Amino acid sequence: MKKTGFREDPFYPVQPFFVLNTEHYYKKQCEGLPVSHFYSFMAEKDNHYANYVIPDNTVDILFCCEKEDPSAFVCGSVSRQVEHEFCTGKEYFGVRFVPGTLKGFLKLSGSELMDNCIDLRELLGSDALLFSIAGAKSFQERIRVFQDFMEGELARREPEDSAIVDYMLKRIHESCGEIRLCDLSGEMQYSVQYIRRCFTETVGMSPKKFCRQLRFQHALKQINSGAFRNMAEISQEAGYYDQAHMLKEFQSCLGLSPAKYANIINLKGYGKQILYV
């Protein structure tokens, strides 16, 4: 594994407190669907910050790699920050999916997972994958184990037609969440009601809520990068009406002001803790 310059996915979400409460956070970005990236970390014994899970629009599978008693949960996006307790000193392996892509893999809709976690063992009816992941000797080997499993599962399933939602996600990301639903309706020649229903059933939230969380995540990543001089620039870049609007969103989704979050990021050296593979 090697450490490279700090970067974050241009479109897909981050969970910064997973990084802040670890010594080293390993990450492998993916170019193809349905996985955005893989990650791995060991929970510190003395966490300086709460282990917050924050709104991110996506779904993760998180494995606790305890060899004799592994566990894994499929975790949907949350509506607001919630605290999650990791077992200190234990190693975790995660798979973060591209928004809207999980249904073709595990036959779960985003709406079933919103604000919810489901035991992966119950979904699969077996714990073989959990033991294979836990028993792997490295981060790269765990990635290979999961990819082999996923390819096998996808090969056994009929491909699903997700062209409508795929197009909506593409256009929403291109506009950083600023495109209107009526404009999408005109482009696609479907009614607003129909495309809203398709999107909500697949992704687990309305397009409006998805765009709202996308702007929040975009602002987070601007703060993480340190590329902007002040919060006014960040709020403008992220598509907020003004700085007060961004402050309100951070308080709702994170329970912290943007300035306080930036102080935590700078103090901990966020970008230096991420090791890209």
TrEMBL record:
Keyword set includes tRNA processing: no
Molecular function per GO: DNA-binding transcription factor activity; sequence-specific DNA binding
Keyword DNA-binding: yes
HTH araC/xylS-type domain boundaries: 162-264
Keyword vocabulary terms for this entry: DNA-binding, Transcription, Transcription regulation
Name of the protein in question: AraC family transcriptional regulator
